[in-house]
Input
Amino acid sequence: MGSHQDSNPDSQVRADHLPTPATEAGREGLDALLARPGRAVIALDFDGTLAPIVPDPDRARAHPDAVPALAALAPRVASVAVITGRPAEVAVHHGGFADVPGLDRLVVLGHYGAERWDAATGTVTAPPPHPGVAAVRAELPGVLDASGAGQGTWIEEKGRAVAVHTRRAADPGAAFEALRAPLAELAVRHGLVVEPGRLVLELRPPGVDKGGALREYVEETGAGAVLFAGDDLGDLPAFAAVDRLRSEGVPGLLVCSGSDEVTELRKRADVEVDGPAGVVALLRALARRLA
Output
């Protein structure tokens, strides 16, 4: 797999120049994307990748240059998809993706692919929610009170999932660890799973992840190359999906939006960039190369 960017300075994006991926598979993926952009899918996580991480997720917004970069790149590739754990409409609102010239074929796969928003229609399609989410939502306040995690933990309503954040706690790491076991027990009782992230534990239905969403979308579009960019543990299934696609003959490029909070992705990435600003620089560089 890919190595950390410090061992390969050329893997960074500087001055809008495309990086040199740290792995052979990554170089093949980038070459395929550049050679046949009309068959390439660009897939990106939202929080931490297109939008900087902030203490209050409701205040998260896409990097100010993200939408212009996407709008410049999207007409030159087969498709651009945002794959996120957020509800699709929330990601569309926070990203500013609606009614943007150049993004008329953008797709937002929310709730790990359970919801889909298409820019062409401006509508969301989704199946009924899992009943366990409502049950967990009702019990969570009592579980948090009994956990000893302390003040500062709070619940984010996500419609088809519910998340507990510890970033505002006096000791965010200790609160996160204190909640792991009781939230896992709560999830099991109601047929859900716990997905850990950057100082957040999300309870959601099983069998739904970014890897499955990405693979289904690549198959739907008939893509001949795929780029996926992410920053957090929830993006690892998408990294694994790209690895599987590579083994099946679909070239791919794995991009890590780097942070000091989560290091697992940088060990597996072909390219590491400096957070959302670095992702934007990469998108801009791709658009410029393909112009």
User: Anything to note?
Assistant: Residues 165 and 200 are 4 Å apart (CA to CA). The longest helix spans residues 172-189. DSSP finds nine helices and twelve strands in the chain. The longest strand covers residues 225-230.
